[in-house]
Amino acid sequence: MRGFHSEAEIPPEDWARAMETNFFGVVATTREVLPHMRTTRSGKIINIGSVSGRLGFPGYGPYAASKFAVAGFSESLRLEMLLRKSIPTAQIAILLNV
């Protein structure tokens, strides 16, 4: 993302790049490690978030959207692991840079 833009002016490629790196990268990594963690019934997943995953800032729409997505994904995964009791030691968390 180059400089400050109105959300409507941010090119689609910038939105795609932010989501690909910050969100789909987290999903892909989780998909790779989760089967092993389920088999061994151990492990921890720590997804790194940002204050932008809780608050949006002008001109940072793609970044904020990708970090909000990480927060939602992480919360859903945490609850799924608790309900399934499939990874008793799993600690899935968002760490905020504050």
Helix count, per DSSP? Answer: 2
The fourth-level CATH homologous superfamily is NAD(P)-binding Rossmann-like Domain
CATH classification class: Alpha Beta
Output the structural class: mainly alpha
Largest sheet: 2 strands, parallel
Q: How many domains make up the coordinates?
A: 1
What would CATH call the architecture?
Answer: 3-Layer(aba) Sandwich
What is the overall pLDDT average? 80
Amino- and carboxy-terminal Cα gap = 22 Å
- Main sheet: which strands, in order across? 1-2
* Gyration radius over CA: 15 Å
Proportion of strand residues: 5-15%
Structural account:
With 98 residues, the protein is mostly helical. The protein has a single domain, classed as NAD(P)-binding Rossmann-like Domain (Rossmann fold). Helix content is 54%, strand content 6%. It is built from two helices and two strands. The chain has helices spanning 12-40, 61-84; strands at 46-48, 93-95. Strands 1-2 form a two-stranded parallel sheet. Helix 2 links the parallel strand 1 (46-48) and strand 2. Helix 1 (12-40) packs parallel to helix 2 (61-84). The longest helix has 29 residues, at 12-40. It is elongated. It starts with 11 loop residues before the first helix and ends with a strand.
Short description, anyone?
This protein is mostly helical.
Task: Name its key features.
54% helix; Rossmann fold; mainly alpha; single chain; 98 residues; 2 helices; two-stranded parallel sheet
List the helices and strands and how they pair.
Layout (H helix, E strand, L loop, with lengths): L11 H29 L5 E3 L12 H24 L8 E3 L3
